[in-house]
From TrEMBL:
A Pfam family of this chain: DNA_mis_repair
Keywords: DNA damage, DNA repair
One GO process term, biological-process aspect: mismatch repair
PANTHER family the record matches: DNA MISMATCH REPAIR PROTEIN MLH, PMS, MUTL, DNA MISMATCH REPAIR PROTEIN MLH1
GO cellular component assignments: mismatch repair complex
Full protein name: DNA mismatch repair protein MutL
Length: 622
């Protein structure tokens, strides 16, 4: 009887491992960049073509590998990072499992060139789908170059599941930014389809953050510094007024490794408690240094989750340090008992004796005298003054004569008022009275209107979302949107990833009524906005739009317009808790039932319900 259990061939095992390690081109970027950092490189270049689907290449000037290491690094579980199991608890490097290169080589065409500084010649290896094609000696610069081409060429199903180039490119930017922010002592360069996207020279942490996110990031940052026996915290948090709707600029680094931690994020949000608007997310770039033996990194294939020995103490320290920084830089309200230096005595007055005040009395002054002007007198050190007595009245009793009588006013016919002539009324009294009798707002959330069979209860937020959604969708489809020009154009700053999204959405935004006067690498200049959008809502609207579409922009133009219309309707719709006038309530109800599909909101939730008189009668039935 034949055995059922068999050992998998290496190339099959590598492809299975690749499913965990390599999910998309960004996974290859992460692994190759981290290998370059572990090689002690001081200059790293990332070259991308077609969002990584055609080419991902990383070139570094690190220590390189010899012939044996160059061949062995593509074997499973071959690593230079650890020797014993105990080394897992004292990790100082990025990688340690020895699966990344083997997994990448199993699903792509890989070309590696490497040379050590002390060697004159290097090694060039070509692998296709785990099969060694060639290995040659070549004249190469110091360091290592990995070129990964045609990702998932032998797994068509995985390649078909990749998103659009825009989405995959944004994931690559995210991975690049995480590595670049963790190592400000390394020069990083990023090229995409032949264009330079990032050039980050060696700099301080603050400069690296500003160089990565550009714009006016520098003025948003508040430094954080705390040293304890448990953890050392360095980094920056943003001022509350610069908080965003999305969580794009939130980074935790533990021992120079990017991690995700909902627990630590909650500590940051707790520090901002009471000074952030609802739904706002602060930006933060926090670098935590802890003893390597106090954390466990090996709990997730992507190594972005870490288990801490004492999470509660770390939570308290992080929260307190951020609160202290916000208070120290007068970002958050604090009790300040320090003395105001402006009230201190000037230095050149310290040896001067105080002058004794003197009182001078004019013995000749008579308030009842008939003199209209008293004599001039001057005090010590003053230029003097003149005292003028008010003009005397003939008799003070005459001031109160006639107060018992009623005042006489001219006849109303003799009075003329300057006013505009009203030629017509938008709403007559009967209509207003009719509206008051037929529309009511309950708890600043629902609008109730009677109908023949009973009454209609409308959710004001969902109803307004449906009205705005159909308006925006019509404007984008028919291209008849009107704009209101701004007296002073708006300058809005965004990160490079957000600018990519705005570039993709620009045509659709123009169709809704936006006018882009200028589009740069880190900001846009808007000179016109849709008619139903106020100037203060523009930044909120665009931030919400970028947050809603951060997972990808639909390639279909109609789906793209639909997504934009939904996002804008969500941002601009009247919220629950807003009091509406009678006319606003009436217009909202009329606008809802004039829509093509008034029954549901753009997010497929009911906008109104009806209650019949029979249903009410049943409630009162005994």
């Amino acid at each position: 009887m034949s055995s059922i259990i068999q050992l998998l061939p290496d190339h099959v095992a590598n492809q299975i491992a690749a499913g965990e390690v390599v999910q998309r081109p960004a996974s290859v970027v992460k692994e190759l960049l981290e290998n370059a950092v572990d090689a002690n490189a001081t200059d790293i270049k990332l070259i991308i073509k077609d969002a990584g689907k055609s080419l991902v290449q990383v070139i570094d000037n690190g220590k390189g590998m010899n012939v044996t290491d160059a061949r062995l690094c593509f074997e499973r579980h071959a690593t230079s990072k650890i020797r014993h199991a105990e080394d897992l608890f004292t990790l100082h490097t990025k990688g340690f499992r020895g699966e990344a290169l083997a997994s990448i080589a199993a699903i792509a065409h890989v070309e590696m060139k490497t040379r050590q500084p002390q060697e004159e010649l290097g090694t060039q290896i070509v692998i296709e789908g785990s099969k060694f094609v060639s290995q040659e000696t070549a004249v190469l610069p110091q360091g290592t170059s990995f070129a990964v081409k045609n990702l998932f060429f032998n797994i068509p199903a995985r390649r078909n599941f990749l998103k659009s180039d825009t989405v995959e490119y944004r994931h690559i930017i995210d991975e690049f930014q995480r590595v670049a922010l963790a190592h400000s002592n390394i020069h990083f360069t990023f090229y995409h389809n032949g264009s330079e996207m990032f050039n980050l020279p060696v700099s301080t942490l603050r400069q690296r953050v500003v160089n990565v996110f550009s714009g006016k990031t520098n003025e948003k940052l508040v430094p954080v510094h705390e040293e304890t026996e448990i953890v050392t915290i360095e980094g920056f948090v943003s001022k509350p007024e610069f908080a965003k709707k999305n969580r794009g600029e939130q980074f935790f680094f533990v021992n120079d490794r990017f991690i995700k931690s909902g627990y630590l994020h909650h500590a940051v949000m707790a520090a901002y408690d009471g000074i952030l608007k609802d739904g706002a997310q602060p930006s933060y770039f926090l670098y935590l240094t802890v003893p390597p033996n106090s954390i466990d990194i090996n709990i997730h294939p992507t190594k972005t989750e870490i288990k801490f020995d004492d999470e509660s103490a770390l939570y308290a320290i992080l929260r307190a340090s951020i609160k202290h920084s916000l208070g120290q830089f007068n970002v958050a309200p604090v009790l300040d008992f320090d003395r105001d230096s402006n009230l201190d005595t000037p230095y050149h007055y310290k040896d001067l004796a105080g002058a004794v005040p003197t009182i001078q009395v004019d013995s000749t002054f008579n308030p009842f005298s008939d003199d209209k002007v008293n004599k001039h007198y001057a005090g010590s050190g003053s230029s003097g003054s003149l005292y003028k007595k008010p003009a005397a009245t003939a008799s003070w009793e005459s001031l109160y004569v006639g107060l018992e009588q009623e005042p006489e006013f001219p006849a109303s016919a003799e009075i003329s008022f300057e006013s505009e002539e009203v030629t017509a009324s938008l709403f007559n009294d009967e209509e207003v009275e009719h509206a008051v009798q037929n529309v009511y707002q309950i708890h600043k959330k629902y609008i109730v209107s009677p109908i023949k069979s009973g009454m209609v209860i409308v959710d004001q937020q969902r109803a307004h979302q449906r009205v705005l959604y159909e308006q925006f969708l019509t404007n984008m489809t028919v291209h008849q949107a009107s704009s209101q020009q701004l007296l002073f154009p708006l300058n809005l700053y965004f990160s490079s990833g957000e600018m990519e999204l705005i570039s993709e959405l620009k045509l659709s935004l123009v169709n809704t009524g936006f006018v882009f006067e200028e589009t740069n690498d880190d900001h846009v200049v808007i000179s016109g906005i849709p008619v139903n959008v106020t100037e203060s809502e523009v930044s909120i609207l665009l931030e919400q739009l970028l947050s809603d579409l951060q997972d990808g922009i639909p390639e279909n133009s109609f789906s793209q317009n639909d997504s934009i219309a939904k996002s804008m309707a969500r941002s601009l719709a009247v919220k629950t808790g807003i009091s509406l006038t009678v006319k606003e309530q009436e217009n909202l109800v009329n606008g809802l039932f004039a829509c093509k599909d008034p029954n549901v909101s753009p997010f497929q939730k009911p906008t109104f319900i009806t209650m019949r008189v029979e249903d009410l009668d049943k409630k009162f039935a005994v």
